[in-house]
Amino acid sequence: MSVDRIHLSVLHMGVHELEFVQEAFSTNWLSSVGPNLDAFEEDVSALLGGQHGALAVASGTAALHLILRAIGVESGDRVAVSSLTFAGSVFPILYQGAQPVFIDSEETSGNIDPSLVEEYLHAAAAKGALPRALVAVHLYGQHADIDRIAAACREHGVVLIEDAAESLGATYKGRPTASTADYAILSFNGNKIITTTGGGMVLARDRAQLARMKKWANQSREPAIEYLHQEYGYNYRMSNVLAGIGRGQLRVLSERVAQRRAVFERYREALQGVPGVTLQPEAPWGTHTRWLSVAYIDDVITGIGAHALVQQLAAQDIEARPVWRPMHTQPLFTSAEKVGGAVAERLYSSGICLPSSSSLALEAQERVIAALRSALSVSE
Ligand SMILES: Cc1ncc(COP(=O)(O)O)c(C=O)c1O
User: Fold this and answer.
1) What is the pLDDT of residue 325?
2) Alpha-carbon distance 297 to 295, whole Å?
3) pLDDT above 80 for 33
4) Which residue ranges have their beta carbon within 6 Å of ligand 1?
5) Max alpha carbon distance in the chain (Å)?
């Protein structure tokens, strides 16, 4: 791999992460308990308005698994989820033996469509086939249009879970992402806007539920001097060392949002007026972090499809990606229930995620823009 390779989204440390990690080493808090964990959870909870308790775990996927179990999802249940998403939003549904129901996107943000959610829950209630929960994913740094979704879930007794793995730093009508439902998850995977190199978090309004999840994440150890178990658990807890990285990263979150938005702005300026290329709009309901900058390519007008464009950029050592392949089109889910799907398929076939790192240097971004203009046959 060339040293000049431009990646899609890379880790970007601030100046405080190492201090917290060093503190963990010097005090020997190097396992799955310790002051960094407590402080990281408190800091995230406070950042999100303080109404939710936080539990730091090994991944966003683990966080969602814990929540699904806590709210009673079990074998044979349905769980509705955005079709246009990463597998981490969906696999935990299978861990619980439940079935996903994939719901299509609305055009603006690509997130789950509130009108379809209303229609689907109404029809499912009439059939006596309501899902137990609905996972609304906030894609690429932009919050879903959640108010109508939340109202429909409330009306039908469906638990709403925010998958905010990609949206930390975003807002919805002035509220922070991951604070607009009873439950939410975050991911601190290495490619996210801030990271613990790998990790996730559960957010829950109900502290008793959070305590159950904390116990399960610690192998369901009962408070006893011996290893006593009344129920099964998981080894899902985050380490105190990684929580130290998270504490440092939280301090630069707003800076990272501004940097990613600036990267997007430069793409927008450079590509505006190029026929057949549209940058993803910012929905009127909140701030988009631009975790990933997304462009849509009309292959008829430009003469090149989004996926061919990804390959052309790769040939020049530039990493781009197609938009998530909708879950209802995955070989694993050919027989799964779905509601619509055409919008997600269109966004997938025309969408491309451009290099979006907050540390992306101006010259590197110029290289991406030049490669795009050349592939799109735009004259200087
Ligand atoms: C939308 C979405 N949900 C869930 C996850 C799972 O998070 P993790 O990788 O921390 O398990 C990710 C990404 O990593 C994601 O992008």
Assistant:
1) 98
2) 7
3) yes
4) 59-61, 85-86, 88-89, 137, 163, 165-166, 187, 189, 200
5) 73
Number of CB atoms found within 10 A of residue 75's CB: 8
Cβ atoms of residues 62 and 288 within 8 Å: no
The structure tokens listed for 259 are 């940097």
Q: For residue 280, give the nearest of 295, 270, 267 by alpha carbon.
A: 295
- % helix / strand / coil in the chain, to the nearest 5? 40, 15, 45
Q: From the DSSP assignment, how many helices (H) and strands (E) are in the chain? A: 13, 14
Q: Measured in whole angstroms, how far is the alpha carbon of residue 260 from the centre of its chain? A: 16
272: tokens are 């505006």
DSSP summary character for residue 380: -
Please give the distance, rounded to the nearest whole angstrom, from the Cα atom of residue 370 to the centre of ligand 1.
Answer: 31
Q: Report how far ligand 1's centroid is from the alpha carbon of 91 (Å).
A: 10
Contact partners, residue 165, CB within 8 Å, separation at least 6: 60, 86, 88, 89, 137, 185, 186, 187, 189, 192, 200
Cα–Cα distance for residue pair 229/316, rounded to 1 Å: 55
The 10s digit of each residue's pLDDT in 145-170 is 999 999 999 999 999 999 999 999 99
Give the separation between CA 351 and CA 47, rounded to whole angstroms. 32
pLDDT at 247 over 70: yes
Q: Which amino acid would we find at residue 97?
A: G
Measured distance CA(148)–CA(152) in Å, rounded: 6
